[in-house]
Amino acid sequence: MKFFIDTANLDQIREAQALGVLDGVTTNPSLMAKEGITGKENIINHYKAICEIVDGDVSAEVIATDFEGIVEEGEALAKLHPQIVVKVPMIREGVKALKYFSTKGIKTNCTLVFSAGQALLAAKAGATYVSPFIGRLDDISTDGLGLIQEIRLVYDNYGFDTQILAASIRHTMHIMDCAKIGADVMTGPLSAIDGLLKHPLTDIGLEKFLADYKKGN
Ligand code: E4P
Fold it and tell me: Where residue 217 falls among pLDDT bands split at 50, 70, 90?
């Protein structure tokens, strides 16, 4: 399972990278705005800065919603750095653009996916990643993890190469549940990754080992 961090915060990206388990980064316009990164040039420089920190794929989202605009913006983003993956919304024009990018060998992440039907379309169009937003579904009392299960089934039925990127992860159990279902990738906050580390018996056990070592030395 690949681990992506879902943030535009460079310190958090560095911290996750330093842990040695980071495979990539996802961003979106809201995450950029949260860090105070606004304006085309600043956003582009920020993508480049992220690519310098991590070794893996970095999703950069298009703003255009028409086919020509998405293609123009996506091609420019893809030229920024070999690690850039063009993030395209699940809309009619987006699906056309996914197909176009796949024929050009440009990696894509189809975002804002909320149904297995949308995920099927994204795979048919040749998306590299599909991003079902599980937290946002849970927020409206709809089963986010159930969606990951459905997409896994559909993709396995036909051997689609599109990777399931479980997005809108809110906490550590989301990561574990997605891992059990077989999501290819998860993207979440640093706090959710950190949660995997913690167990009180580890802390108690280590404390005793260190205390016992001191007794004999
Ligand atoms: C995915 O790529 C999105 O950036 C993200 O996971 C959205 O998460 P949210 O629902 O916490 O905003």
Answer: confident
